[in-house]
C-alpha cells in the first residue's frame, strides 16, 4: 500500500461517508430506491434521476476497462486506469503492483485504498 | 431550425503561439477588429457578441466595453469547451436569421502559455484540478489533465479495433504535411514515422506528436444573414448545416466512451440540415486535439466504416494530394491551437479559396468539427461558398 504518487484530496459533504468507509478499506457505490447501482462520484441516478440515494458496499472486485501510463519526466512512470467494478460502475484510479507490460483490458483487479499525507484515503487497484 | 440563412463574412486572427506579454482581452480586441475590417465593417457595426474563454478564463462579457460596443442586442459568454466555436456560429446564425441582430462577432481568446513554463503545465497543473471530494479523486490518484483522459479513450479504441500507434502516426504526418504549406502554422518541419514513434510518451499510448500544440492568441469570426453577406468585402462562406451532440456517457459497463463520439449523431443531424451526404464533402476540418480524435471523428462521420479509421489514416487519403483532404492548415497538431476556432478558421480560408498552395479544388462543402471535454461535447458545421438553396 503506497500513497507516494497521490495528492491529498479533502472531503466535502457529498463524499464524507465514502471516505469514512474507505478508511476501513470498504468501497461504497451509490444506489437508488429502484436498485440501480452507479459510481460514487455520480450524485443523481442516471436512469431514474432519483436523488434519494443510499450507499451500497461493493465487493472491491473489478476488471481493467482501459489503461494508460503517464510519463512523469524525471520520476517513475505511473499507470492509471478506468476500473470497472464487478457491480458495473467505472472509477478512474491509479494502478499499483503491476508491470506495465502485463496490462491488458479485462485484467482482474482488486480495489485498495491509500491515504496521502493530509488527505483522504483514495482508491487504487492491484491485479487480483 | 432547419433553415438558417447565415454566412461567415469576417475572419480575424492574431499572432498565435508563444506570444507573450498580452492579455486575453487585448488578443480578443485585435481579432475582432481584424475580423470587422476583413468583412468591410466597422467594429461599431457589430450588434451581437459571443465570447468563448479558454482554459485561463482570459476574456468575458466585459469585452464589449473594451470594444466600445454599447446597446448590443446579443451578448453572452458561451462555454461548450472545444465545441464552442460551432455552438457560437449556430447561435449567431439563429440570431441573425430571426432578426435579433445583424452582425454577430464570435471570439475565442486564451493565454495558457507563460514564458519559461512548459506548454502543458497549465493544462495539468494540480492547482487547477485538485477539487475537494469526488471531483478531486481522479487527480489525487494522478489522473491530471486531458492527456490522461484521451489516452484512456484511445486505448479503448486500440483494444477493440486493433488501432495502432503507427496509424496515429500517419495522422500526425499527414497533418504536418499540410502545415508545411501554411505560413502561419507553428510546426512546419517534415515529420517522419520514426520521429513520431521515437518521440517521448506524454501518456502511453499517446506520444508527444499525437498531442496538439498549446497557443496564446485569439480568433474571431463575424456572422451575418446570407442576404447582408453578399454586400460585404469578402466572399461569404455560407452555413448549410449545423448540429451538436453531447453524448452524456455514463461511467459504467458498456459505455461507448472512447469507441463512439458525438460526431456520429451531430454529423447525421448536420448532414440532414444541409441536405448533403458524406460523399459530397470536399474538405474536412476536424478538431484534432489528438491524432486519435481525428481518427474517431472521421469514422463517426462515416468517411470510413467503424473501426477502420486506422486503415484510412494509413492509406494517405488525408494528406495533400489524397482523396480526402483533412486539416488542410495543419490543424491543432501542427498549425495552432485555438480550440474550435482552429478548424473553423481554416474552413473559412478554404471556403473563400484563399488557401494558396494548400487550397483544395473541391471546396463546395466543407465539414468543420468541434470537440470538447474528453469527447463529451461535439459540434458540426457544414459550410459552402455557395448560398443554400431555399
Q: Secondary-structure map with pairings?
A:
The complex is a heterodimer of chains A (128) and B (390).
Chain A: H1 16-23, E1 28-31, E2 37-38, E3 54-57, E4 61-70, E5 78-85, E6 90-95, E7 108-114, E8 122-127
Parallel strand pairs in A: 6-8
Antiparallel strand pairs in A: 1-2, 1-3, 4-5, 4-7, 5-6, 7-8
Chain B: E1 6-13, H1 24-39, E2 48-53, H2 63-66, E3 74-77, H3 84-97, E4 103-110, H4 126-129, H5 137-140, H6 145-161, H7 165-179, H8 193-198, E5 201-204, E6 206-207, E7 217-225, H9 226-229, E8 237-245, H10 263-274, E9 283-285, H11 291-301, H12 309-314, H13 331-335, H14 341-352, E10 366-372, E11 377-384
Parallel strand pairs in B: 2-3, 2-4, 9-10
Antiparallel strand pairs in B: 1-7, 1-8, 4-7, 5-6, 8-11, 10-11
Description of the molecule:
By secondary structure, chain A is mainly β. Helix content of chain A is 6%, strand content 37%. Chain A has one helix at 16-23; strands at 28-31, 37-38, 54-57, 61-70, 78-85, 90-95, 108-114, 122-127. In chain A, the strands form two sheets. A five-stranded mixed barrel of chain A has the order 4-5-6-8-7. Chain A has a three-stranded antiparallel β-sheet with strand order 2-1-3. In chain A, a hairpin with a 7-residue loop joins β7 (108-114) and β8. The longest helix of chain A is centred in the N-terminal third of the chain and has 8 residues, at 16-23. Chain A is globular. With 390 residues, chain B is an alpha/beta fold. Chain B is 33% helix and 17% strand. Chain B has 14 helices and eleven strands. In chain B, the strands form two sheets. Chain B has a nine-stranded mixed β-sheet. In chain B, α7 packs across α11 (291-301). In chain B, 59% of the residues are buried. Chain A binds chain B through residues 5-12, 14-15, 18, 38-42, 46, 65-71, 73, 77-78, 80-82, 84, 88-94, 100, 104-105, 116, 119, 122-124, and chain B through 126, 130, 132-143, 147-148, 151-153, 155-156, 159, 200-206, 250-253, 255, 257-258.
Amino acid at each position: 500500500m503506497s500513497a507516494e504518487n497521490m495528492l491529498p484530496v479533502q472531503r466535502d459533504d457529498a463524499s464524507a461517508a465514502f471516505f469514512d468507509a474507505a478508511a476501513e478499506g470498504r468501497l461504497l457505490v451509490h444506489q437508488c430506491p429502484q436498485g440501480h447501482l452507479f459510481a460514487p462520484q455520480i450524485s443523481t441516478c442516471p436512469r431514474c434521476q432519483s436523488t434519494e440515494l443510499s450507499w451500497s458496499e461493493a465487493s472491491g472486485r473489478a476488471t481493467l476497462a482501459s489503461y494508460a501510463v503517464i510519463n512523469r519526466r524525471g520520476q517513475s512512470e505511473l499507470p492509471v486506469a478506468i476500473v470497472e467494478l464487478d457491480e458495473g460502475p467505472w472509477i478512474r484510479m491509479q494502478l499499483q503492483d503491476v508491470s506495465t507490460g502485463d496490462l491488458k483490458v479485462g485484467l482482474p483487479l482488486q480495489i485498495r485504498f491509500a491515504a496521502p499525507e493530509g488527505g483522504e484515503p483514495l482508491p487504487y487497484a492491484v491485479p487480483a | 431550425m432547419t433553415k438558417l440563412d447565415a454566412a461567415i463574412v469576417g475572419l480575424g486572427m492574431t499572432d498565435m503561439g508563444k506570444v507573450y506579454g498580452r492579455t486575453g482581452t487585448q488578443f480578443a480586441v485585435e481579432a475582432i477588429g481584424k475580423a470587422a475590417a476583413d468583412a468591410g465593417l466597422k467594429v461599431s457595426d457589430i450588434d451581437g457578441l459571443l465570447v468563448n474563454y479558454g482554459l485561463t478564463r482570459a476574456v468575458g462579457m466585459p469585452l464589449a466595453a473594451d470594444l466600445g460596443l454599447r446597446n448590443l442586442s446579443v451578448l453572452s459568454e458561451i462555454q461548450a469547451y472545444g465545441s464552442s466555436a460551432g455552438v457560437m456560429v449556430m447561435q449567431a446564425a439563429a440570431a441573425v436569421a430571426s432578426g435579433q441582430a445583424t452582425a454577430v462577432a464570435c471570439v475565442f481568446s486564451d493565454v495558457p502559455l507563460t514564458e519559461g513554463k512548459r506548454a502543458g503545465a497549465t493544462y495539468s497543473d494540480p492547482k487547477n484540478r485538485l477539487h475537494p471530494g469526488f471531483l478531486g479523486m481522479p487527480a489525487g490518484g494522478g489522473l491530471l489533465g486531458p492527456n490522461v483522459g484521451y489516452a484512456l479513450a484511445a486505448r479503448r479504441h486500440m483494444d477493440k479495433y486493433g488501432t495502432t500507434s503507427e496509424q496515429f502516426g500517419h495522422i500526425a504526418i499527414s497533418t504536418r504535411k499540410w502545415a508545411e504549406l501554411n505560413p502561419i502554422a507553428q510546426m512546419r518541419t517534415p515529420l517522419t514515422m520514426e520521429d513520431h514513434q521515437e518521440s517521448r510518451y506524454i501518456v502511453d499510448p499517446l506520444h508527444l506528436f499525437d498531442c496538439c500544440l498549446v497557443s496564446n492568441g485569439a480568433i474571431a469570426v463575424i456572422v451575418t444573414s446570407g442576404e447582408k453577406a453578399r454586400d460585404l468585402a469578402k466572399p461569404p462562406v455560407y452555413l448549410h448545416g449545423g448540429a451538436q451532440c453531447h453524448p452524456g456517457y455514463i461511467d459504467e459497463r458498456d459505455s461507448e466512451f472512447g469507441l463512439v463520439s458525438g460526431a456520429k449523431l451531430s454529423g447525421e443531424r448536420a448532414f440532414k440540415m444541409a441536405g448533403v451526404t458524406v460523399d459530397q464533402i470536399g474538405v474536412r476540418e476536424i478538431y484534432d486535439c489528438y491524432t486519435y480524435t481525428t481518427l474517431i471523428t472521421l469514422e463517426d462521420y462515416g468517411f470510413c466504416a467503424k473501426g477502420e479509421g486506422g486503415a484510412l489514416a494509413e492509406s494517405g487519403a488525408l494528406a495533400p494530394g489524397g482523396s480526402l483532404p483533412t486539416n488542410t492548415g495543419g490543424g491543432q497538431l501542427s498549425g495552432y491551437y485555438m480550440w474550435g476556432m482552429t478548424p473553423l478558421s481554416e474552413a473559412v480560408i478554404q471556403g473563400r479559396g484563399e488557401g494558396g498552395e494548400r487550397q483544395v479544388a473541391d471546396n463546395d462543402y466543407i465539414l468543420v468539427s468541434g470537440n470538447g471535454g474528453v469527447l463529451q461535447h461535439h459540434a458540426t458545421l457544414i459550410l459552402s461558398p455557395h448560398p443554400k438553396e431555399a
